[in-house]
């Protein structure tokens, strides 16, 4: 069961990556950067920018690299978001 | 001595002519003329006529030739001094209210083709042939290729690459890297740092460390030698979604870990997307890495950034093999040195 933040993060990632329903479902199993071919480094940053805009949060450079799946991104947003 | 210009008037030689063609000036603008000297050639509807200077002095033209001019208008001034008469003398020319006059046939053509009267601004009389010429010219312009302007960023890229292509004799060497070996190494790094490291980050790191051992690959060519750069500052080519190319520079990349390089690269790309990257982040590069992974192409023959000696490139694997390419300035190094440098980069990729 995903939290509301995790649900919204998964939606944003699926939108940015234009994921198929199957791949979008895999996001819900909290898999991420290392598992999905569409999740390239450039797309990773596009996800980060979309998350920053959605949740009004600034993600520092070092953290960008460690937010590799729905769970880690949602946790960051819950911790640092407004 | 005061100035006393005398106008040269277009005579009414043919009763119903409102305009005539000033076909040719017979003397230069500002030339000394004598009263009675033929100075201009006019074409009326039924005759050609040369008209004479109305006075001794210096003649200054008020109209170019050939040109339609109105009967009774001034087409030149003959001054008693060599000085061109003051501009207000032009006011003596008959004015045409409301701009150009159109013949009936010209008027009909305007309506037929939807041509604006403004297209003939500055003309006194507009005839059928003037409108036809304008329509023909408009058709030619419509057939001309449309020029789409380049973005400011692309213009800068174009300028740099033109300079590079024009001044640097490029040569290339390539070698193969097994995809499985590289993927294994990348996976290790991702696990070790618990961070989203990429092949590009690995390549920047491997290139920087190899360059430290091969100083000629971090140099600038001068006519009488090389400037060897102290710092290995690696430019990382980044393609933005709109297709533009930007190259942020990892300063002293040979002293940074893959994690630090990755952090800089991802942060730079984020600031590029948000249009917040400072120009200073693009300065000081001494060597460049460019990749096109995830695109489907399997080899790049890259262009060296002006002021640098080489560029390292990699794209997608083909049949389980990556092609790693070094583009180098052949004035600075030869193929053997280039091969050794590239082998050194590969060693760092798989061993670092």
Structure description:
The complex is a heterodimer of chains A (82) and B (352). Chain A has a single domain, classed as Non-ribosomal Peptide Synthetase Peptidyl Carrier Protein, Chain A. In chain A, 66% of the residues lie in helices and 0% in strands. Chain A contains 5 helices and no strands. Chain A has helices at residues 4-17, 21-28, 41-55, 61-66, 70-80. Chain A is globular. With 352 residues, chain B is of the alpha+beta class. In chain B, 30% of the residues lie in helices and 25% in strands. Chain B is elongated, with a radius of gyration of 37 Å. Mean pLDDT of chain B is 88; it is low at 88-97. The chains are: A mainly alpha (82), B alpha+beta (352). The A-B interface holds A 33-34, 40-42, 44-46, 48-49, 59-62, 64-66, 68 and B 187, 190, 193-198, 200-201, 238-239, 241, 259, 262-267, 269-270, 273-274, 293-294.
Element layout with pairings:
The complex is a heterodimer of chains A (82) and B (352).
Chain A: H1 4-17, H2 21-28, H3 41-55, H4 61-66, H5 70-80
Helix pairs in contact in A: 1-2, 1-3, 1-5
Chain B: E1 6-9, E2 19-25, E3 31-33, E4 38-43, E5 48-52, E6 57-61, E7 67-70, E8 74-79, E9 101-102, H1 104-113, E10 125-126, H2 128-143, H3 152-167, E11 170-178, H4 179-193, H5 199-213, E12 219-222, E13 225-228, E14 234-236, E15 238-239, E16 245-246, E17 249-250, H6 258-273, E18 287-291, E19 310-314, E20 321-329, H7 335-351
Parallel strand pairs in B: 9-10, 14-18, 18-19
Antiparallel strand pairs in B: 1-8, 2-4, 2-7, 3-6, 4-5, 6-8, 11-20, 12-13, 14-17, 15-16, 19-20
Could you report the average pLDDT of chain B, rounded to the nearest whole number? 88
Radius of gyration of chain B: 37 Å
Structural class of chain B: alpha+beta
Tell me the major beta sheet of chain B: 6 strands, mixed
Helix/strand order of chain A, N-terminal first:
HHHHH
What is the SS-derived class of chain A? Answer: mainly alpha
The CATH C-level name of chain A is Mainly Alpha
Fold-level CATH name of chain A = Non-ribosomal Peptide Synthetase Peptidyl Carrier Protein, Chain A
Shape annotation of chain B: elongated
Shape of chain A: globular
Largest interface, C-beta closer than 8 angstroms, per-chain residues: A-B, 18 and 26 residues
């Amino acid at each position: 069961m995903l939290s509301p933040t995790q649900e919204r993060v998964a939606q944003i990632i699926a939108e940015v990556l234009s994921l198929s329903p199957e791949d979008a479902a895999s996001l819900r199993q909290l898999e991420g950067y290392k598992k999905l071919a569409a999740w390239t480094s450039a797309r990773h940053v596009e996800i980060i920018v979309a998350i920053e805009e959605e949740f009004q949060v600034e993600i520092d450079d070092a953290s960008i690299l460690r937010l590799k799946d729905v769970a880690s991104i949602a946790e960051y947003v819950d911790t640092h978001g407004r | 001595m005061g100035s006393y210009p005398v106008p040269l008037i277009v005579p009414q030689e043919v009763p119903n002519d409102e305009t005539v063609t000033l076909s040719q000036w017979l003397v230069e603008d500002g030339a000394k003329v004598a009263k009675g000297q033929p100075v201009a050639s006019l074409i009326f509807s039924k005759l050609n006529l040369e008209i004479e200077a109305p006075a001794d002095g210096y003649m200054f033209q008020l109209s170019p030739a050939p040109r339609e001019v109105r009967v009774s208008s001034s087409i030149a001034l003959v001054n008693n001094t060599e000085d061109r008469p003051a501009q207000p003398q032009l006011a003596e020319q008959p004015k045409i209210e409301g701009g150009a006059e159109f013949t009936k046939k010209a008027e009909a053509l305007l309506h037929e083709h939807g041509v604006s009267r403004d297209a003939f601004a500055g003309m006194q009389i507009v005839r059928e042939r003037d409108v036809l010429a304008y329509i023909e010219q408009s058709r030619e312009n419509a057939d001309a290729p449309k020029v789409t302007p380049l973005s400011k960023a692309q213009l800068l890229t174009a300028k740099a690459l033109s300079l590079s292509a024009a001044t640097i004799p490029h040569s290339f060497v390539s070698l193969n890297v097994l995809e499985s070996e590289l993927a294994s190494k990348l996976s290790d790094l991702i696990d070790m740092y618990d961070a989203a490291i990429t092949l590009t980050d690995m390549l920047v790191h491997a290139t920087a460390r190899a360059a430290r051992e091969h100083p000629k690959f971090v140099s600038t060519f001068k006519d009488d030698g090389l400037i060897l750069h102290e710092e290995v500052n690696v430019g990382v080519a980044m393609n933005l979604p709109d297709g533009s190319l930007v190259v942020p520079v990892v300063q002293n990349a040979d002293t940074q870990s893959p994690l630090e390089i990755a952090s800089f690269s991802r942060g730079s790309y984020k600031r590029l997307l948000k249009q917040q990257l400072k120009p200073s982040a693009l300065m000081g590069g001494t060597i460049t890495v460019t990749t096109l992974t995830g695109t489907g192409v399997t080899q790049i023959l890259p262009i060296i950034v002006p002021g640098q000696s080489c560029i390292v490139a990699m794209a997608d694997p083909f049949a389980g093999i990556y092609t790693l390419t070094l583009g180098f300035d052949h004035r600075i190094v030869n193929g053997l040195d280039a091969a050794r440098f590239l082998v050194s980069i590969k060693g760092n990729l798989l061993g670092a």
